[in-house]
Amino acid sequence: MLDLAHRLANLLEPWFHQHQRDLAWRRTRDPYAIWVSEIMLQQTRVDTVEAYYGRFLERFPDVGTLAAADESEVLAAWSGLGYYRRARLLHAGARHVATSHGGTVPDDPELLRKIPGVGRYTAGAIASIAFDRPTALVDGNVARVLSRLQALENPKQQDASAAGHWIMAQKIVQAGQPRVLAQALMELGATVCTPMGPRCEGCPVRSECQALAKGLQSTIPTPKQRAPSPREDLWAVAVRRNGRVLLEQRANEGLLGGMWCLPLIERKSTDRAGAPPRVIAEVTGVKVKSVEALVEPVKHVFTHRVWMLWPCRGEAAVVDVPFRAGYEDGPGRMWIAPGERPRGGIPKVTEKVLERLGY
Ligand code: SF4
């Protein structure tokens, strides 16, 4: 009698060959391309990644090209994909591979995990999918599948970090072809054993599923009680001078690190007419003579925070100071005309506010 891991492997392999989605990153064994796809797919939908993946690889086709690129070029190519820290870590990772491994992505999971931005899951994905090495990978999708298959009702055993999942995933990927089984587990979680309403009738492993047998497929994993994300209300200030608007590059650490944004100022509940000119001058170094607030805020939801950005315009008091070449105004500052954008990345939220302001 085969053990559970072998029985699952025997069911998953033919199912994956027949039912896998045709995704661009499944048509390659290039470990660099698979690494890029795995980083892009973190917290981001497949259809969104599809729009960026090919373009990014055209611009940066290999580790060497990415490592040699300027960070602003990398952020520009990532612009709109969100979670920009991933792009900076991918860039740092490429530089690490270029200097420590001569530009060749290693196949050893331990070496992979030393690459900036590559954790246990991503190392497992690159090692198994690109190199066909029997290396476990457990993300939220795989954890849900394994929790249901074994009817694990204890929330501590359901999490993607649970040791039991990593042991089981390891047994499964080494019970057949690792690159197929690793992807099959992820695909099953993404397309069949979905969080809400798993499609058990079409599931290839239904004969092995304890949750289905016990009628627990809708209650495993245990729903998480999430506290509402804290909300921040901020003025997004368009300081205007000679028809141009000031953009500032945010510090590398923190939300939207390294991205170009309008200066942001805390919006107090008593502020209605726009950010106070005194505070604008303190934050931007530009004195404004008048401020006008727009009525509707732009909402942007991060993983653990919600921004309500209230656009407002402030006319600079001094307008005849000539701009420097390229409209740059010292490091991390730039004055843009309508339709103009800096070379580095612009996050979607800045785009939305600029559009609202007619820029
Ligand atoms: Fe998930 Fe249903 Fe398949 Fe069990 S039978 S693994 S609950 S889809």
What does this structure look like?
This protein is α+β, with helices and mostly antiparallel strands and 359 residues long. The chain has two domains: 4-214, Hypothetical protein, domain 2 (Endonuclease III, domain 1, Orthogonal Bundle); 231-356, Nucleoside Triphosphate Pyrophosphohydrolase. Helices cover 41% and strands 13% of the residues. It has helices at residues 4-19, 31-41, 46-59, 63-68, 71-78, 85-100, 109-112, 120-131, 140-149, 155-158, 163-173, 178-191, 210-214, 277-284, 348-356, and strands at 231-241, 244-249, 260-261, 264-266, 288-293, 298-301, 306-316, 333-336. Strands 1, 2, 3, 4, 5, 6, 7 and 8 form an eight-stranded mixed β-sheet that branches. 40% of the residues are buried. The model has no long low-confidence stretch (mean pLDDT 92). The structure holds iron/sulfur cluster (SF4).
CATH class category label of the largest domain: Mainly Alpha
What is the H-and-E element order? Answer: HHHHHHHHHHHHHEEEEHEEEEH
Q: Can you identify the CATH superfamily of the largest domain?
A: Hypothetical protein, domain 2
Q: Which CATH architecture of the largest domain?
A: Orthogonal Bundle
Radius of gyration equals: 25 Å
The description of the largest β-sheet is:
8 strands, mixed
Mean pLDDT: 92
Helix proportion range? 40-55%
Strand content: 5-15%
Function: Adenine glycosylase active on G-A mispairs. MutY also corrects error-prone DNA synthesis past GO lesions which are due to the oxidatively damaged form of guanine: 7,8-dihydro-8-oxoguanine (8-oxo-dGTP).
Enzyme class: hydrolase
Cofactor: [4Fe-4S] cluster
Family: Belongs to the Nth/MutY family.
